[in-house]
Design a protein that fits this description.
alpha+beta, Ubiquitin-like (UB roll), 2 domains, 5-stranded mixed β-sheet, two-stranded antiparallel ribbon, 9 helices
Length: 263
Amino acid sequence: MADKVRFIIERQDGPDEKPYNQEFDVDYRPGLNVVAALMEIQKNPVTVDGKRVPPVNWECNCLEKVCGACTMVINGRVQQACCALIDHLKQPIHLQPARTFPVIRDLLVDRSIMFENLKKIQGWVEIDGSWEVTNAPIQNPYTAQLTYKLSQCMTCGCCLEACPNVNYSHLGIEGLREEKSAGAADFMGASPIAQAYLFNLNPIGSFDKPKRLNALMEKGGITSCGNSQNCAAVCPKSLPLLDVLAQVNRDVNVQALKNMFNF
């Protein structure tokens, strides 16, 4: 391994600015990951030709593949920077923003449409109100195992970045803000659909299953899925997204028949 690690970073000074590349060298050390390398660049933002530039903007939080904040495209593949080890990456290492979403600056993108879509599909269990207290609802262990797996989704956006049917970047920052209340312009992606399925499996959340399925019939819902299967290939948590999409597609069709015949 060389003493230096070369990074080629795609930068952008603002939402409406043109992207450009800058190259940086970082001292190699065992166990170095992309986030740690970006921190080194932040401390001394000098390009390989000796030019001092503004620090690179990116986002991170947990540093252990839990929050999903550090999603970016590394050597052409969308993934989390915190768990992308330099020893496993071909050099020079190319870093790009996840351009499915509007770029705020450099590697920092606006993923808020994902959280708006969770609101759209009612990604929660409704607990307001009162009910007769009886025995707690029972969930079989196989369903419990599946729901635990689906609950590991961290809304990182990898599945959306890899999906050819998803693109919010054309909306821009202002357009994205205007679009939030009206619903997404394109396919909402596998993540919110998986969360709809998760809460439909919940014994209490299942009471609102028709609401979630009806939301998935709207523009940008399950019918916009092109079955490219890219989402399953890039999911950092290895969620069973293909099985979920197939099951939700079936559930939506059953709900459509119920709506048609009022039962």
